[in-house]
Amino acid sequence: MDTVVVEHNPGWARIRIARPAKRNALDRATRLALTVAFAEVDPGCHAVILTGTERSFCAGLDLKERAAEIAAGRPDTAGEEAIALNTAIRAHKAVFIAAVNGLALGGGLTLVNVCDLAIAAEDAAFGTPEIGFATYASMAGPTSRLLLNRKRAAWLLLTGERIDATTALDWGLVNEVVPVGRLAGRCAEIAARLAGFDATALPAIKASLDAVPGADADWRQALVYGQGVNAAIRAARVER
Predict the structure, then answer these.
(1) How many Å apart are CA 128 and CA 106, to the nearest integer?
(2) Is the residue at 64 inside a domain?
(3) I want to staple 226 with a disulfide (CB 3.0 to 4.6 A). Which of 142, 194, 203, 233 is the partner?
């Protein structure tokens, strides 16, 4: 749990990814620690703030660790672990608030996408750099497509260019943009407000957001689909 810090407050919690030297990239230990932290949130907790440390929210999966494990012949379970992590947020009874304190790239953008609410600092930036590595953003890609129209999702996935917080707000990826120094306080205000709502109504309303007829979204299926796209890319590269 060294790379995950949990702060408990009455009715809400703050969970912080703490790998600033790696821009809060998710190595295996951090992925598993976050999953455990989500599962161990107090049943009376109505809201969870998810944030990063220093200048980054989360720069995605730890690609160096993943490449080293593959090169060593170890099973590549990073995708499965990331799916479990992200679907845990969707399935959780608490309302998750992404407090985006800087870079949210690849898997970091995925975390923003799967959270119920997102507040960004003015200096936050969002992107999917995977095209530069000749791969598909297998988590951020499908989850962004669930939230964005095709042209906007295409811009992220095909150009690899980052968008700023104002653009993310305009596109609907975040709910609000605040000054850097106000991010923690503003998210705490929202979490405390949610903590005062009915413990039965809140999770029911959260669940309804993916279950309204005509708006049903299977987030796990979308994440699994993303893994399949990358598998096809790798297979085609081997055949050439």
Answers:
(1) 5
(2) yes
(3) 142
**Residue 208 belongs to a domain:** no
Of the candidates 50, 229, 62, the residue with the CA atom closest to the CA atom of residue 141: 229
- Which CATH number does the domain housing residue 47 bear? 3.90.226.10
How many Å apart are CA 174 and CA 195, to the nearest integer?
21
Angle, CA of 196, 17 and 226, to the nearest 5°: 95
Mention every residue, 6+ apart, whose C-beta is less than 8 A from residue 119.
97, 98, 99, 100, 174, 175, 176, 177, 178, 183, 186, 187, 190
Whole-angstrom distance between the N-terminal and C-terminal Cα of the chain? 43
Quick: pLDDT tens for 80-138: 999 999 999 999 999 999 999 999 999 999 999 999 999 999 999 999 999 999 999 99
Query: Residue 92: which domain range?
Result: 4-200+214-239
What's the token pair of residue 237? 């590269």
Rg of the chain's alpha carbons, rounded to an integer? 17
Query: pTM of the prediction?
Result: 0.91
| Domain count within the chain | 1
- Does residue 206 form part of some domain? no
pLDDT digits (tens, 9 = 90+) for 162-179: 999 999 999 999 999 999
